[in-house]
Dehydrogenase (Streptomyces parvus), 290 residues
Amino acid sequence: MQSVTLPTSLDEAVAALGAMPAAVPVAGGTDLMAAVNKGLLRPSGLVGLGRISELRGWHYQDGHALLGAGLTHARMGRPDFAALIPALAASARAAGPPQIRNAGTLGGNIVTSAPTGDALPVLAALEAELVIAGPDGARREIPVSHLLAGRELLEPAELIGFVRVPLLHAPQVFLKATGRTGPGRATASVAIVLDPARRGVRCAVGAIAPMPLRPLEAEQWIASLIDWDGERGLAPDALAAFGEYVAAACIPDHAPPADGSEAPPLSPAVLHLRRTVAALARRALGRALS
């Protein structure tokens, strides 16, 4: 490794990346250092983002929270943040052991885009947008879902500066299943966000695919059953049906072969994953409506 640069502003960081195209930006370093230790990455330089104070907090703008990309999971898990964006706070608290939560950042979770990233389904359900910083003070905004899907990749010398999240002032829930007791990597996760102003339910399923999945038809169907002007509660049968709808949309049956023969059944492991997603979606919606 040849050089380490420690800028104190977002534009300085962008300029440093422009001057050293092969350098890699680093904040918490939880994923970067794992890749270096495994020999998967040998950066010629690092641009450290830890001294950029504007990236470590948040402010309000037009009914949205503008979250700095340097916010750590530990900071997002605190009560004052949870009062603003409950599902994102819940995902931050579930992000792993204390050493990961203290170092790992919101922006790192997005850029790495690991399927098991706990913040990703929440950001997808919130329909968050990214504020991208580029050379010469340029700023552009893209939906977070576009970056996660690889539709709009970061250009050279660009950084995620902020994440714009709507403040819905309505229930939100994040749940995940892990392969072992305690905080760990998700085998499946579900984020549910209620949007009373638009009489909508937004759901995203994480960890089961390369990017979070939105079961849009299931969202529209369940939203049509909710009494938005009344108690909002749903019968257990409706909650269970929603869970099955979400699971089948995200983990569909095999398509029939072209020769017209019967489609092969899903494996026991896939069926178990489908049941897990159904249970998470059912419970998450039930909690959001309770």
Remarks:
- The domain at 170-287 is CATH 3.30.390.50 (Enolase-like; domain 1).
- The chain has twelve helices and eleven strands.
